[in-house]
Design brief:
With about 325 residues, this protein is mostly helical. The chain has 14 helices and no strands. It has one domain. The longest helix is centred in the last third of the chain and has 34 residues.
């Protein structure tokens, strides 16, 4: 069978799968790629300054998005009335990236990964504070339970407490901040505009500190750093594909397979064995975020049903 025919057959079989199955597969692929990413960060992050990694990652990001900007036209792609908000978004990203590279270069992979899963908890709090969203007692209770899981992982009062866990926790917080700003920007800005300014501002923020911290990079280290940039991009693409085709509540559990892969990689490659605090805290965090997702999906469906039953109060918008 010709290669083209085999490809068409495989493509047809892929699209015959239910959307949620395809979304789950994309998330599993993302879990594998994300594990490769954090292993690469561990390998290179202990020898190269964190800010240098951030600078190189941002530079690669600019180079990757620049051809798209040029093809669309610089004026069209970069026109914005919210340059300050783009700067704020990039600052959150800049801090998050620094925390990400530092945490994974120091902490056990499973511990850092579990802490990042707090992002939906922080997002709910920020949505109430800055987006005016209303939260009932069920989601509020689930959020408090999730932060209880964080407390368990932090091991307060225990000799095993590692303050770098707070750095990993900060990743979840600043990623939630990014999500809030992007939600505001996405109403008026093109995706290419958001991505370009994020990369460009991050490069700008990293340039001066990277200049002072810069260390010579060997060819092997350069290859690893470029692989970090590539795997980061692939991970983002897989994540977008997953959430685009699958229902959040149906495929979200597969996102947490990242913890299993991270724990496995940590054990096999770095002799890391997560303790009871890690597994207990992670279970509470994951359970809380899954409940919040399911609750939000249920409320959205209920709101959509009410909207369908409610008579129209205005003209029917044209189909586009």
């Amino acid at each position: 069978m010709p290669v083209r025919a085999r490809f068409d057959t495989a493509q047809a079989a892929w699209f015959r799968l239910p959307p949620n199955s395809r979304g789950a597969i994309w998330l599993l692929c993302n879990a594998v790629v994300s594990t490769v990413l954090i292993v690469l960060v561990r390998m290179v992050g202990q020898d190269i300054p964190t800010i240098q990694l951030v600078f190189i990652r941002a530079a690669v990001g600019v180079m990757l998005i620049l051809p798209v900007v040029l093809r669309m036209g610089v004026t069209s792609a970069l026109r914005t009335d919210h340059i300050a908000m783009h700067g704020v978004r990039a600052m959150f990203t800049f801090v998050s990236m620094n925390c990400f590279y530092y945490a994974y270069s120091v902490l056990p992979l499973a511990d850092a990964t579990a802490m990042i899963f707090t992002m939906p908890l922080f997002l709910l709090v920020l949505a109430v504070a800055f987006l005016g969203e209303r939260v009932g007692w069920r989601r509020a209770s689930a959020t408090l339970a999730g932060f209880l899981g964080v407390v368990v992982m932090l091991r307060p009062g225990q000799a095993a407490f590692d303050p770098v866990l707070l750095v990993a926790l900060a990743i979840g917080f600043f990623d939630a901040c990014v999500a809030v700003v992007v939600k505001k920007l996405s109403g008026t800005e093109k995706p290419v505009t958001i991505i370009f300014y994020m990369a460009a501002f991050t490069l700008l923020f990293a340039s001066i500190p990277a200049w002072f911290a810069w260390q010579p990079v060997s060819l092997e280290q350069l290859v690893l750093i470029l692989l970090i940039a590539v795997t980061t991009t692939i991970s983002q693409i897989f994540t977008v594909f997953a959430w685009r085709v699958g229902e959040t509540t149906a495929i979200a559990p597969f996102n947490y397979t990242q913890l299993i892969f991270a724990a496995g990689a940590g054990f096999l490659l770095f002799a890391e064995l997560p303790d009871a605090y890690t597994w207990t805290g992670a279970a509470i965090i994951i359970g809380s975020t899954l409940y919040i997702m399911r609750r939000e999906a249920r409320l959205k469906r209920r709101g959509a049903a009410i909207a369908e039953d409610r008579p129209s109060t205005g003209p029917v918008p044209p189909r586009v």
